[in-house]
Amino acid sequence: MKPLLIVDSISKQFQTTPVVRNVSFEVFPGEIFALLGASGCGKTTTLRLIAGFEKADSGVVTMNERILEDKQILVPPESREIGFVFQDYALFPDKSVIDNAAFGLSRKIKKNKRYKIATDILERVGIEHLKSRMPHHLSGGEQQRVALARSLVTQPKLILLDEPFSNLDAGLRQSTREEVKELLKALNISVVLVTHDQEEALSFAERVAVMHDGIIEQIGTPEEVYRKPKTVYVANFLGKTNIIETRIENGLAETPIGIIKVDYQDTPQAILSIRPEHIKINKVDTKLEDKILAENKIQGHISACEFKGHDFTYQVEIDGKTFFIQTDYQRHFQVGDTVTLQPVDAVVIEKDM
Questions:
Q1: Fewer CB atoms inside 10 A, N or C side of the chain?
Q2: Going by DSSP bridges, is the β-strand pair 242-249/267-274 parallel, antiparallel, or unpaired?
Q3: What 3-state DSSP class applies to 47?
Q4: Among the listed residues 180, 203, 228, 213, the one whose alpha carbon sits nearest the alpha carbon of residue 83
Q5: SS3 of 242, please?
Q6: Cα separation of 148 and 84, whole Å?
Q7: Residues 325, 333: contact at Cβ < 8 Å?
Q8: How would DSSP label each residue in 173-237?
């Protein structure tokens, strides 16, 4: 399958500060692709370069084999067949819902026809009954749907979403995310989502690009970037992890919490990422402590505990170092407990950027 969108080596700097540095990726027809990164990493600027709101210093943007931007060509935003949903929705406060939704349609189309098209889209996003209301009479979720309808009304080939769920309450965020994803998949529209929220990117997108300091450090499926991070930054950014420097010999890595088998060639220097849920934890029975010591099991003490409803995250101190361990909601240890740890899965990070 040919990609719909090709972003090839685009760069952008403001004054003397590089913001986007040699960024490349592809988005396929009907695919939801996420740019994930912390604030200031360059992800929103990348989105604005694709939309044509900013001009790249170098690089090429192509959609449907049509060049949107290179050294000689710069297609204006309104001619790119790209929809854009802004973080703050950017609704016109003096226009009704239906007028906001119909705004992008050509004035060459008769007004009653524009309203018919806009009404159909409002119905698809579930707010047709609100078409006469003004934006200030809408909830955050309703405003977002108006902004989405406005971006869809021109039947774009690609939709760009800039932190679209960040202004919603936590309780509404997940349900809205699921509904919007279902709608976009039903319409078979390609999507580029920008977000700083790891859970959002992993649950919403089919592929994720992790950005840091203006570059893309890794692209892959949500499972790949979480389970097999290629850099220390990616490993840390996608959730708590334990970064351990070690060596690998005969397929085994020795760590402060035990020896673990890894699928990697022997090397005197390696960096492991071990997720908290990939470590077994057991409480030490003081009556059996001598036996544990005889078996060379490493002991530590729980120094902190964080309860998150569906699981516990413990901090365990061993020889002055802290390790994170996650258990389900039923496994409850106490701060101060003496425990043993055993890693059950680890990934070797191939480069430290």
A1: N
A2: antiparallel
A3: helix
A4: 180
A5: strand
A6: 8
A7: no
A8: HHHHHHHHHHHHHHHT-EEEEEES-HHHHHHH-SEEEEEETTEEEEEE-HHHHHHS-SSHHHHHH
Cα–Cα dist 152/198, whole Å: 26
Residues listed for the chain: 353
Reported as a single tens digit per residue, the pLDDT across 293-302 is 535 567 899 9
Domains, the chain, with CATH or none: 5-236 (3.40.50.300), 240-349 (2.40.50.140)
What are 66-122's pLDDT values in tens digits?
A: 999 999 999 999 999 999 988 888 888 999 999 999 888 877 788 889 889 999 989
Location of structure tokens 């007028």: 99
Give CB contacts under 8 A, 24+ apart, made by 101-106.
101/131, 101/146, 101/149, 101/150, 101/153, 102/150, 102/153, 103/150, 104/150, 104/151, 104/153, 104/154, 105/153, 105/154
pTM: 0.89
Answer whether 156's CB lies under 8 Å from 83's CB.
Answer: yes
What is the rounded distance in angstroms from the CA atom of residue 116 to the CA atom of residue 337? 67
Q: What is the DSSP string of 276-302?
A: GGGEEEEEPPGGGHHHHHHTT--EEEE
